[in-house]
Amino acid sequence: MATATAKPEVFTRKASGLVRVMSPFSAFVYNILTMGLIFPWTYLWAPGALPGGKLVWGILLAMVIEIPIALVYVWLSTALPRSGGDYVFQSRVFGGGVAFTVVMSGYVIWILQWVALSGWLLSYLGFAPLFLGLGATTGNTALSNLGIWFTGSTGIIITSIANAFVSMMILISGFKNYVRFQNVMIAGTILAFFTMLVVLFAGSPSTSMAAIDRFALAVGGASNFVQTARDASVAAGVDLNPPFNLLFTILVAPIAWTSLQWATYSAQQNGEIKNARSFNSQLFIIVGSLIFTGILLALLAAALEKAVGTEFLYIAGAGYWAGVGEATIAGFWLWPNIIAVALTASPLIVIIIGLGYILNSHQIVHNCYIGMTRVMVAMSLDRLLPEWISKVDEKRHTPVNAHLAYFLASIPVILLYNLHPNWVNLTLGVTFACGYVFVITCLAGALLPYRAKEVYEASPGAKYKIGNTPLVTVLGVIGFILGGAMVLMFMLYSQLGLTSTLAYMVVFGVLLFSAVWYFIAKNAQKSKGINVDYAFKEIPPE
Description:
Blueprint (H helix, E strand, L loop, with lengths): L23 H12 L5 H9 L5 H25 L5 H10 L1 H14 L2 H27 L2 H9 L3 H20 L2 H28 L2 H16 L4 H11 L10 H15 L18 H43 L14 H8 L3 H35 L18 H20 L9 H23 L1 H5 L7 E2 L2 E2 H22 L8 H26 L16
Antiparallel strand pairs: 1-2
C-alpha cells in the first residue's frame, strides 16, 4: 500500500465520526434479521415457477454456496474493519472506478427497492394477516376488511412511506437506540417464527384443508375454497404432482439466496462493531448467522410440506406465479404465515405471528438505511459523493444527512413498486444486483494478498494458508465462481424474473449511471487539484 505518497487532504476529514456501539452478538442478530426469516418468495415463487424442485434441498444448497462467500467477508472485515464494507474492500483492491460503479449500482441504488419491499412486507405480510386472522377468529368483519385494505396499493404505499420515515427518525436519534430496539425486534421475530413452526409441524393435510376452508369462508366468504382452488389450478395447466426435477431444485437456490446472501451485511458498519478486527468474532457474526438462518428457513419449508402437503404448495404457487385468482383468499396470496394463521383458531397465536412479522418487516428498512448510509459516508470521505453526505452528528454519532437523502430517494421507488404494473417482476432484481456486488467482493478477497499486501499481512487471517497459497485466495475464487453462477441464472432463466426488456433496461441503466457519476466526480475533484486515486491507497479514517 503506497501510503507514503498520499496527500493529507485526500479524505474530507481525518475521522469518520462513527463510534463502535454494536457488540458482536448484536451484529450476529442484525444479520439474522437482515436475512429475513419472513422473506416469503422461496415458498410461493419456487413451487409456482419451478415444479418438481425441492424446497428444503434448494434452501440448503443456497446456504452451502454462501459459506465460502461468507468466509471471504470474514477475512476482508478483519483486514479492513471500517464502515463502508463492500465499497471499502473493492476500492482498496481494485481502485475507485470498479468499486464505485459496482457498489453504487448494485447496492446504493438497488437497495432502494428493498425499502419499498420492506413496506410491502410490513403491510402485506404483517398488518394484513394480523387483521385478517383476528377477523376470522373473532368473527369481526371490520377487522377482516381492514386486513384486506393493507393488501391494496393505497394501503401498501401509505404503510411503506410511514415505515421508512419512522425508521429514519429512529436511526437519526442515534445508532445506540437502534441497537436497543433491535433486541425487541429479534425477540418478537424469533417468538413468531417458532410459534409458526409449532403450528405447521402440528398440522397435516387431512386436517389443514378443512381449517383453510373455514378461514377462507370467514375472511372472503368463499365456500369450499380448497377444492375450487385445486380445480382452477388444474384448469390453468398447473401440474399438482410433478416428478422430481434436479435443475429446478438447483434453481430454488437463487431464490433462497434472496435471504441468505445477506449473511455478510454487517460488514457495511464494521466501524461501529466492537472487536471487528477479531477473526473469531467475525466468524461468529457472519458464518454463524448464515448457518443459523439457513437451517431455520429449511425447517420452515419442511413444516409447510408437513402441514399442507406438496400438492397444496403447488396450488398456492399457482395463485402467485400463474395468477390463478381462485387460489388466493380475497386476492391474498397464501404465504407461510397466512397458512399458519389459517390453521389456528387462537387470536393470541394470530397476534404473536402478526407482531413478529411486523417487527421483522420494519427492521428491513432499518438495515437498508444503516448499510447504505455507511457506504455513502465512505464514498463521501473519498470525495466521490458530496461532502455533506458524510457529515456525522457529533452528539448522536449518526450520518443524519445521508439518512435524509436515502429516505427521499426511496419515495419514488415505493411508488414505482406499487403503481407500475410490471415493476413487481423485478422483485428478485435486488438479489441479482446485490449478487454481483458479492461476487466482485469475493474476487477482491482473492486478490487482497497481492494487490493490498501490507493490509493483508497485518490482518489476523494472513496466517491461514494452503501450502503457499493464502486461504482467502482459494475461498475467494470458489465464492466468485459459485456466486457468479447464481447471478448468471437470473439472466438465463425466465423463472427468476429478470429476462424482460424492462429488467435489462433497469439493470444496465443503473450500471451506466453509476459509471458516469464516478467519471464526473473524479474529474470534478481533479479540477480542484485533488487526485482521488490516492484515497484508495489508504485505509479509510476510523
